[in-house]
Amino acid sequence: MRLRARFTKLGKVRFVSHRDLARIWERAVRRADLPVAYSSGFSPRPRFHFGLALSVGHESWAEYLDVDLTEDLDEVTLAALSAQFSAVLPNGVDCTALAVVASSGGLSLQEAVTSSTWSIAMDGGSLLDAAASVEALLGASSVFVTRERKGKTVNDDIRPYVRNLLLEGDRADCEHGVVLRAEIGTQPRTLRPAELIGALGPMWRERRVVRLAQWIDHEDGRQEPLALPAGPIPWLRTDVCAT
Amino acid sequence: MSTVWPRLEPLLARVERPARYIGCEDGAQTPQHAPHKAAWLLIYPDTYEVGLPNQGLQILYEILNERDDALAERAYAPWTDLEVELRAHRVPLFSLENHLPAGDFDVLGFNLAAELTYTNLLNCVDLAGVPVRAEGRGEAHPLVIAGGHCTYNPEPLADFVDAFVIGDGEEVVSEINEVVVDWKRSGRTEGSREQVLRRLASVPGVYVPSMYRVTYDGPRLVAIEPRYRDVPARVEKRTIASLEDWPYPRQQLVPLTEVVHDRLNVEVFRGCTRGCRFCQAGMITRPVRERSAEQVRTMVAAGLRRSGYDEVALTSLSTADFSGIEAVVGSIMDLGDNISVALPSLRVDAFTVGIAAQLQKARRAGLTFAPEAGTWRMRQVINKLIREEDLYAAVDGAFSSGWRRVKLYFLTGLPTETDEDTLGITELARNCVAIGQRHQKGTSVTVSVGGFVPKPFTPFQWFGQNTVSELERKINLLRSDARRSRGVQLRWHDPKATLIEGLMARGDRRVGAVIEEVWRSGGTFQEWTEHFRLDRWVDALANAGLSADWYVHRHRTEDEALPWDHLSAGLHKDFLWQDWRDALEAVGLADCRWTPCYDCGACTGYGIEHVVASAVPPAGGSQGTGQDLSSGHVVPVSLISRRPASAAEVGAGNA
Ligand code: B12
Ligand code: SF4
Known about the structure:
The structure holds 2 protein chains of 2 kinds. By secondary structure, chain A is of the alpha+beta class. In chain A, about 20% of the residues lie in helices and about 35% in strands. The interface between A and B is medium-sized, with 26 and 24 residues.
C-alpha cells in the first residue's frame, strides 16, 4: 500500500535541507509506528518517494511524500494519522492531508507534477518597476538564462516555463515588498524561483518565497496531487504562519 | 530582551547549513524569562554539529529548566561565514530557543572538552558583546562559567573565565544557580560582581581564578594561592555518588540537521579505573558508577520510542566493561528489527564474539578498537594491558561476524617509545588484515595515529611531549611501512596541532596572552585543519616571551609546582608519581573495580565507592591481567570488601 502525505514547510524550518527533511520524516514515520517497507541492501532505508525538491530557505504549503507500507492500514488509523504526524514533526512541518494512492503503474510525484504556484516577495523596486519587469518578461517570445546543470553551464530558454505571472500589489501591511504570484512549469525540468527573479532583471532580490500549490495537468483541467481538506485543520500549528 | 530573529533571518539565507542556527529540535524547550529566574546560556564552543551531541550540556539544560528559579537556552560557535555577517550587521551571538542576545543572559556556561576550542570561547564571549577579559566585566555583564574535562587545568583561560567548575556538574549547577539568583534579585548593584565571585569561590568544586594570586620565579611557577582566607587553598572536584540518581537527558535533543553521532546516546557508566596512564578522562572521572541494566534498558526503550532514532550508542569510557553488557545489547536488539547498537569505546580484551554477533545483526559499517600502542612492552608502560592475542581474537570475531572494515587507534610519542614500538603499529595492522583475509576478500584495516599529549592529573603529567619534528619522523616511519602493507590505511593527526594542544593542556596563566593574540589575529576553529595555522601560535608565543619548549617538551620534576596543584581530582600526587615510576619500568597496575583498592584517593578522599553490578570482569581475553586466559574464562581476581587500603598495603607494590 502506498500512502501520500501533503505537508507544509513554514517558518524557521525552511532552512532545513531536503536531505535533512527526509531524515525528519524517517523518524516521524518510525514514531508513528507505521509498517514501512525498507529497501534491501547493506543499510536498509525506508521506501520514501519525495516530490520536487524545495530550495533551502523557501517555504511551502504544498509538499508531498509517498511512503510504501508493507501492510494495509484501516480507515480509523488513517483518519488519525495526519494529526499524529504533526505531533511528531517539528514546528512548521504539518501534515495537512493524507490518502492512499495507487502504488504501481502510475507516474512518480516528480514525473507527474507539471507546474507549481509560487508566492514570491522581492525587493529592489516599486510596484511600477515590477509591473514593467513582468510585462517585459511576459511579452518576450524567448528569455535565455545561463544556468548550471550537472556541472555544465547551459543557455536555456525559460520563457516556456512561465505559465502565469501576476503582481499582487505592494502589501505594505506585511512589509514583504513587491509580491508576485507565479505559475511555473516543471517539465521536463523545473525553473527555480531564483532563476525567475534573475530573469526579471538584475535589480530584483528575493525576499520570501512560498510554494502555494503543485499541479498535475489533465485533458480537462488540472488537479493537485492531494487537495487540502475543505474545513479547517485543527492540528495546524498557527504560530508558524506569523513568520 | 528581544529576539534577534528578524535581523538574523536575512543573514541565514547567505550562509552554509543555516539549519544549524534555527533550534526547533525535538526536546528543545522554550523557556519563559522572568526576574526571579537565573537565565543560563549553555554554549559549546564549536560548531552545532560537534557541540549538539555533547551530553554534558544536555544534562545541565534539563536540570536547569526543571527548576523554578532557573532557565537554560543553548548556543554554539557560529561558523566563520555567519560570524562575518553577524559582525557586519552588528547582530550578537544568540540563543537557539528564543533567539535572544547572549549578552542578556545571566550566565554564559561553556563546556570545554577539547583544548583547541579555547580561542572559540573568547570569540563567543566577544560576539556576545561581553569584554573578553574577566577584569573588564561589570554588573551589567553575564558571568562566564566553564565546565568539562579541560577545566582540570583552567590556568590558560584564567584571565577570561570568571569561574570554572571541576568535575560532575549535576549537583553543583544548582548550587551556583542559587548564588546567581540572589545576585539577580538584589538588582546586581554596583560592586556586587566581586561579591558574587567571592561567594562562588566558596561553593565546593568551583574555582574562581581572580581570587588567587600567582607567583613566578623567572619561567618557573612558584605557587597559586588564595587571596582571601575564606577562599579554599585547594578546590576539590565534584563527583556524583550515583549515576542512577541522574537519568538524564530524559529528552535528548533530536536535531533537524545531521550532526556527528546523530543517534540516541545513553550513558551506561561514568568513570573508568582500567588505569590507562595516558588517559586523563579515566583518571579524573574515578570511581566507576554504573547505571543498573534495568535503567539502561528503560532509557533506551523510552528514548528510541520518543526520538524515532533507529540507532543507540551505549556511552562510557569503556562500554564493554559494563556489567552484563551482552545481555543488555541483546535485549536492545530485541526492541526492533532495524535497531542498531553502537559501542563507541571498546576494549579489545572485553570484546567477545558474543557481542560481535549481537551487534552485527544491525550490520554496522565499521568497528573501532583502540590498542593505543604497537608492542606489549609499550602497552605495559601505558598500562593498557591488552595482549596481541586479545586484539587478534577481537578482530577475528569482527571479521567472522561479517564486518568488512576495522579501525584501530594508536598513540605515538609515548614515554620510552622506540622505533621498534612505533613500527609495532603497522605490524599489528598487517596481522589484522591477514586475519580478515581468512574470512573475506578485500578486508581493510584503517590505522589512526595521534600524537600523544600529556595531560594534567595523569601519571604522564611530568613527561616532556615529543617535538613536532620527532612526531613527524615517527609518522613518516609508519607511512613508508604502511605503503608496503596491502590493506592497511594510515591516517594521522597533524603534529603541529598536537603541539598546541600540549601548550593548552599544561600551560599556566601566562599562556592566556598567547590565546588572546591568536584569537585577535583571526585564529578560531583551531580544531579544524583548514583553519589551524601554527605560525599564528609561534608568533604569539614569541610576542609573549614564552617558549613552547618550556611548557611542552621539557620533562618536569617531582618537586616542581604544577599549574593545577591548587585543584584536586581526588588523586594523591604521590600515587600519580609512583605510577609514573612504575610506567618507566613497564610495570602494570590492575583495575581496582575488581581487585583491592590501592587508595589513589578518588574514592577514599570523598567517602564514595565504585558502583558496579558484577564482582568480576566480563569474560574473555586477558582482561588487563596480561595473563594467558583462554577466551570465555573468568579472570582469577579475588574480590575483597571495599575499603581503603592501609598505607602499608599501598606501598610501592602497586603491581
Ligand atoms: C560525545 C563525545 C564527543 C562528541 C560530542 C562532543 C563532546 N565532546 O561532547 C563528538 C563526536 C563530536 C566528539 C568529538 C571530539 N572528542 Co569527544 N567525546 C565524547 C564522549 C564520548 C562523551 C562526552 C560526553 O557527553 N560526556 C558526558 C558528560 C556527562 O560529561 P561532560 O561533557 O564532561 O559534562 C559534565 C561535566 O564536565 C560538567 N560540565 C560540563 N560542561 C559544563 C558547563 C558548566 C557551566 C557546568 C556548571 C558544568 C559543566 O557537567 C557535566 C555533567 O556532569 C567523551 C568520552 C566520555 N565518555 O566522556 C569523549 C571525549 C570528551 N572526546 C574527546 C576527544 C579527544 C574528542 C576530539 C578532540 C576527537 C578528535 N580528535 O577529533 C573531538 C573534539 C570535538 C570538539 N571540537 O570539541 C576526549 C577528550 C580528551 C581530553 N581532552 O582529555 C574524550 C574524553 C574521549 C577520550 N577518552 O579521549 N566527542
Ligand atoms: S580510591 Fe581505590 S577503588 Fe577508588 S578509584 Fe582509587 S584505587 Fe580505585
